[in-house]
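Run log, item B.
One chain of 192 residues. Sequence copied directly from the ordering sheet:
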Amino acid sequence: MSISPFFHELRSAYQAEINDLSFDSEGRDVLRQRLAERRKELGFLLQMMELSPEMVAVIFHQGFEFKKPAVMDHLLSQESDELPEWASLADAIALPRWAQDLSHVVLKQPMGEWFLTVAAGLEYMYSKPEGTSAAPIDEEEDDGDSADGNSNSSDDRADPVAGPDGDDERDARAREEAGADWMAEQGFDRKD
């Protein structure tokens, strides 16, 4: 299974978002409470759906049951403009009642189907045990290592994450900055 540059970039941001929500400053597990709070803010979060999908996708954390892993593996190989329609994933994904209710609100948005597909992909990557995931992704800046984390200096291919002009990298940084700005507005400290 290969992971597209689009999902590759969002993966670590999604994991970081879940980690940030998981524990309070005293180390207590507060994930359930914080997710409940986020879900109540859905109306506001919908504004960020396209710019920072990883920040909004956390509202669906633990809200997908993946019935057809092969379909999800294929989904992760797609770029953002190649994603299948949400309805086409109906046989591959089941949602509990609470997630169905959220999805109905999201689907009313112009980018709703796209977002739900992205959210499912992010949660699928997050829920897969490391040993069965595509290669572990180094969360540091891309240092030329191949997807499996091994240096491959004989590989002269262009970096798929950076894109031909580095546009993907700039977009990822812009998403990260927008997310950091939003979190700061919500009272969280910047990670800078």
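Observations after the first pass:
- The beta strands are 65-66, 93-94.
- The chain has a mean pLDDT of 79.
Flagged for discussion on Thursday.
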